[in-house]
Design a protein that fits this description.
Layout (H helix, E strand, L loop, with lengths): L3 H7 L6 H13 L9 H14 L3 E5 L5 H7 L7 E6 L5 H8 L8 E5 L2 H7 L8 E6 L6 H8 L3 E10 L16 H14 L4 E6 L5 E6 L2
Parallel strand pairs: 1-2, 1-4, 2-3, 4-5
Antiparallel strand pairs: 5-7, 6-7
């Protein structure tokens, strides 16, 4: 019997060959393959990007480059995507993966601490991005949000991944888990922020779609 996840995958657009290869290699060569966006969420990221047709995208948390390539599918001609990854041990793999696709030429990889880079970009990149994807250290989501929001254009969208955290955000057994507590604090912050509109979509591990008001 086909389960629901298989049914959804079968009735969604397929991954291209490059994404299939990255998915396979990530599962074989890394210890945290569950961090990969994956087929269905990747198609959703690509679809949202194509709907918005952004000129500039920012991603926090590159991992192996899968989600960056999905988001880049919707870039305008001449557009760019900046992606930040803290783990320098992944740099060679990321660059190799991005080189597999022509879209990789428009992706600029930054190795370093996202908070430090965002602070350094506050002046030069204010209101610069039409789309921001947050998928880095869950304990820092609130800090990322406050630092990235000024870089988002009015009317632009921020996507925050893993905001349901396998259901732990509503499970009292995880009261002492630091990542769960941090995501709860982030969710509360966004819910109470009148600068934005927001909705949590229960796809995979939870994706919050946030629109900065004009």
């Amino acid at each position: 019997m086909t389960d629901l996840n298989e049914y959804i995958e079968q009735h969604s657009s397929a991954e291209n060959d490059v994404l299939q290869r990255i998915s396979h290699d990530t599962n074989v060569l890394t210890c945290n393959a569950h961090m990969l966006s994956g087929h269905v969420q990747g198609r959703l990221l690509a679809m949202l990007s194509k709907m918005l047709q952004p000129r500039h995208i920012l991603e926090l948390g590159t991992f192996t480059g899968y989600s960056a390539l999905c988001l880049a599918e919707g870039l305008q001609a001449g557009g760019t995507l900046d992606t930040i990854e803290r783990n320098d041990e992944l740099e060679e793999m990321i660059r190799s993966n991005l080189a597999l696709s022509s879209s990789g030429e428009r992706i600029r990889l930054h190795i370093g601490d996202a908070k430090e880079l965002l602070r350094s970009w506050q002046a030069e990149k204010k209101d610069f991005y039409e789309l921001i994807f947050v998928d880095a250290d869950k304990r820092e989501y609130s800090a990322y949000y406050e630092l990235a929001l000024p870089l988002l254009r009015p009317g632009g969208f921020m996507l925050a991944d893993n905001t349901l955290w396998d259901g732990h955000v509503v499970d009292p057994h995880y009261e002492r888990d630091w990542q769960t507590r941090s995501l709860r604090a982030f969710n509360d912050m966004v819910a109470n922020d009148n600068r934005v509109e927001k909705v949590i979509v229960p796809i995979r591990d939870g994706l919050t779609i946030i629109r900065k008001k004009e």
